[in-house]
Amino acid sequence: MMPISRKMLKRTSWLGLVMVLGLLSWLNCQPVQAANTGAGFTVQMVKNSRQRAATTGYFDLKVAPGQTGQVQMRIVNLTKQALHLQVHANTGYTTGNGIEAYDKATLGSLSTAPYQLKSIFKVPASITVPAASAKVITVPYQLPTKAFNGVLEGAFYFLNKATGEAQTTNQKGFQLHNRYALALGVVLRESDTSQVKPALKLTGVTTGSDQQAQFSPAVGAKLVNSRPQLLTHLKIDGRIYDQNGQLKFKTVRQNLGMAPNSNFTYLINTGNKRLAAGQYKLRLVATAKHQRWVFTRTFKVTKAQADKVNQQVPRDWHWLWWLLLALAILLIILLLWLVYRYGQRKGREQAQ
Fold first, then answer.
1. Half-sphere exposure of 166 (CA within 13 A, CB side)
2. Is residue 264 in a domain?
3. How far is CA 307 from the centre of its chain?
4. Residue 3 falls within a domain, yes or no?
5. Last residue of some domain: 161, 189, 217?
6. Where does the WxL Interacting Protein peptidoglycan binding domain start and stop, copy by copy (predicted)?
7. What is the largest CA-CA distance in the chain?
8. In degrees rounded to 5, what are phi and psi of residue 290?
9. Confidence of residue 177 (pLDDT cuts 50, 70, 90)
């Protein structure tokens, strides 16, 4: 899915601040401190008998096909007002920026996981936590009867239904409203010894605009992690060549990650230069720990595609200035020549 252009930005938007409690240990990240969240509440896991001993801070449960059970979480309200929270059990997906997120309840084509967490965990639609108090919620679950490989991974997502103060921007009529959320990670696995490795595939090439690069025209490589395993420490080097083998532009990014059974479009932007129609070749190299993938693909950019993505790029009018300068110089030379000829003619008339 390609990033949206300025014309597609809504005049009002929700700015979700998603802070993950108990980040997965293999991401090598430090857990978010509750005191620094600014969300006004914290979420903590209650110890579970099926928790794998190797992990803490998030749910990592060893389960079996058809198994039932429950998990508990403790929500602490740090404010002086009652909190009304929406609760979701969301499967992880990969954003267009190449990071995992948990803020969508319905993923559609963003995930091909065999089972979605919302079909396993029966979370309450919403909960209320009184001011300056704590509440423990119990969430039952039932595993599918058919076994699965690898992991099912996502988070319990708690969204504060209250809207923060509006923030003005430098765009007329545009405001941002803060809504705060916390996510508590959850991983389900049926085998401790299952060593399913991520598998990266290139499924298509398209064009679009890179919002992170000032809406620069870009070529998008759609990548799919087709296995039920997290893909972490991902580095991608994407390069675009013309039909003569000349490097036109490239984008290199590190520390990316992909959720299991997910996809995203990696953007290789032009650096705010106009994208010309024509034949191109993509070469993309992706590395993650001890794995490496190399993809090449020839593709064509049509005039219609180029015109669409170039709408955000100012036209280069330098040639016009040079043309005007050249015309001005020619005009000056012509005027000088006319003055010279006029002077010669006057001189001859006076001599006669």
1. 8
2. yes
3. 24
4. no
5. 189
6. 41-158
7. 121
8. -100, 15
9. low
